[in-house]
Hints:
By secondary structure, the protein is an alpha+beta fold. It contains eight helices and nine strands. The strands form two sheets. A five-stranded antiparallel beta sheet has the order 4-3-2-1-5. A four-stranded antiparallel beta sheet has the order 7-8-6-9, with helices on one face. One of its GO terms (molecular function) is mechanosensitive monoatomic ion channel activity.
Amino acid sequence: MPMGSGSVIATQDVLANLSAPAGTSRLIRWFATNGVEIALWVLAAAIIIRFVNWALARYEKKIDREFDGSDLIVRTESTKHRRALLQVLAWTTIGIVVLVAGLQILMCFGLPVTSLVGPGAVVGAALGFGAQRVVQDLLAGFFIVTERQYGYGDVVELALTGGSVAEGTVEDVNLRVTKLRTSDGEVVTVPNGQIVKSTNLSKDWARAVVDIPIPAEADIGEVNEILARVGTDFFNDRHMHKLLLDAPAPLGVTNLELDSMTVRMVARTLPGKQFEISRALRARIIRALARAGITIAPGRDVVSASTPPTGLDVEQGHGDD
């Protein structure tokens, strides 16, 4: 018997019974039994899927409310991981519900599940061959979530196949794709299988780095003393203190040129807050050096070692007074 002939015969039997001389009464009986069962399976699957989506949305809103209510405290690593893991579990649960409901509905039509093993294997092999990238994305997404490489709210830089780079704030991560919000407000969707390397700029803690170019004739000892005082005052600022893990400190000269030298100042911050700290610290440094009569080297700018991300609220007024 050819593969799948059992399911075809079963379907023909159902249609033959419904089209018999007493087909009307049989049709009514079929709808009263199998039809009701099919409707119940469809209704149950729809309710479960709706509940899973509702529970996921409610949990995400709870996280967002906690984050918005305390914007100076970033999400913990465990919270970000729980959110990503919950999305994966919800996606998997919906897939299982659809599969079970589909098999039960086929059985209601008189199609035994065992007769679908052969055709299912052929279809599965064809889909597996044609959807290798999807499988690759799912496997990569599984390891991203389980290894806690990054999560919702993290600022990341992703190196992709082909040499391109995607960076921004993670807005969604599931088994198949990662969605980033760039500094231009665009949402970039990256298949997980194309990620070669991920750099998390907001995991556990971050470092604010500020490079200050000053004239070569400036007194480096005086500059270091000024920067040390700025770091102490900055750390004692009640607005900035909540974002810092230690006081900003000068590292000395990091680059020397004919007409200028670069002094670096660093500070450990809460995850994702290094950009806000860098902006406020640069303003303090420029004013402190100006009061001491030390100017920034001509044609040079006070820069930080990182690029500001998007999705983070910036309160530039704090610390500028």
